[in-house]
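User: quick one - fold this with guanosine-5',3'-tetraphosphate bound?
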Amino acid sequence: MSKYVNEIEKRRTFAIISHPDAGKTTLTEKFLLYGGAIAMAGAVKGKKAARHAVSDWMEIEKQRGISVTSSVMQFHYEGYCINILDTPGHQDFSEDTYRTLMAADSAVMVIDAAKGVEPQTRKLFKVCLLRDIPIFTFINKMDREARNPYDLLDEIEYELGIKTYPMNWPIGCGKEFKGVYDRNKKEIIAFRANDEMANGQRQVAAIEADLSDPNLAELIGEEHRQTLVDDVELLDGAGYEFDLEAVRHGRLSPVFFGSALTNFGVEPFLEDFLHMTTPPLPRKSDSGEIDPFGDDFSAFVFKIQANMNKAHRDRVAFMRICSGRFEKGMEVLHVQGDKRMKLSQPQQLMAQEREIVDEAYAGDIIGVFDPGIFSIGDTISMPGKKFRFEGIPTFAPEHFALVRQVDTMKRKQFIKGTSQIAQEGAIQIFQELGGGMEEVIVGVVGVLQFEVLEYRLKNEYNVDIHMDMLPYEHIRWIENEGLDPKTLNLTSDTKRIQDLKGNYLLIFANSWSINWALEHNEGLQLAEFGR
Ligand code: G4P
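Assistant: Sure. Structure tokens for the protein plus guanosine-5',3'-tetraphosphate:
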């Protein structure tokens, strides 16, 4: 066992996912308040506006008032050291959002009680399933009119394909919201909306009662009492059993009803969540599983953020520490580059401040200065311990454009720019079979990335581009070894392309054409995620 077992055991690293406006920022802010990392509600919100100061690397962010990149926050709570990985909440997110989930050990999904499962949540959720990580659900905004709780659970189970276990059960909603019934403690926590709570005070004066309390009808009303008694009976009789193992393998999602804004149900949620979720998990590598409690430091790069300082064209590589302890100035091995090096300017985000870190442990995220040597998925280990962590899958882009430079004299800059931006993972580039690099097919997960590409090529590489949107919506990697795509029988609107690694792919205008390809080419194997 590692010398660092105490430090590593208290780490909890999770990603918080939701559709925009479900309340992710508000919930995060309440967590930080409990941890004492911020002193006042509104600080994170304020940060939404002031965030440019931290990640002021792109005009687009300023113009749109959104954060294109995702960030990491660390805080302490009741002996735990918690890392929250924020995923961008706006409509147009990039692959970064997906990759952030690869760095987390569990996910918290925030759902708006009036809206249920929304498209963004569905997309992000797919990635959680890919990794079997635990998923905790917070159904937010119960102080507003909400949908029927049974319907919400049904929808999560049906849409996302995961079983649910309500940890508490709401009593009414909106103006009639009376609180929740804690199924474990068998107690009622009464809802008291008031401004103090909204401003971040802990929810202290909760009135507690159980189902047999003679004053219950007085507390929540006879009608609610009757409904609650029936609901609890139904849940206990017909719902799934609680099973911690199933929770830890992402097969059962504990569900909590609450209201982040009025600070109701947030602290019980955080506490239960911390007890149920796991410390850093082992990670797969080509030398077997890497134990997070091992003595040797190891990490992998999951995100590269470019040009935080435009004058220097520098990049920051974010890495997730997978085992052991990191110490400032220590010598490490960059496996893919086969180079010993010292990681310079290691930084960590403590709540809102970017700080230079002296040490960090498995579970933590650090950002290091990258002179342009790291790629997404690279492994960092101790000198002499050479192994590679399993790669981060390439997520399927959903929007495609044909891109070429306006001035043919700028060919070199164009190739350099598009290749570098692709290396950072902001875009994916493809070529038509047999085509050259002066015209590339760019694929992105969110359309905002097209603007980012155009902006960056102009500002950093001095290249103007011409972009034609392509009508493709789906991409599939061809899995069959040695298959020549030219021999495939395809619909006329399907295109054969190649990625930078030489893999063959197909892009389709609709899902009908995918089925057509599968039906007319026996043995053809298509994958949704690339390697
Ligand atoms: P996001 O990060 O998921 O995009 O959501 P965010 O926390 O920014 O919340 C979106 C809106 O929903 C905010 O209102 C926020 O105050 C509100 N909200 C969050 N949790 C609750 C809740 O439990 N109950 C109610 N009633 N509202 C909630 P806004 O008007 O867009 O922002 P603001 O101007 O109030 O800051």
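One thing worth noting: The chain has 15 helices and 31 strands.
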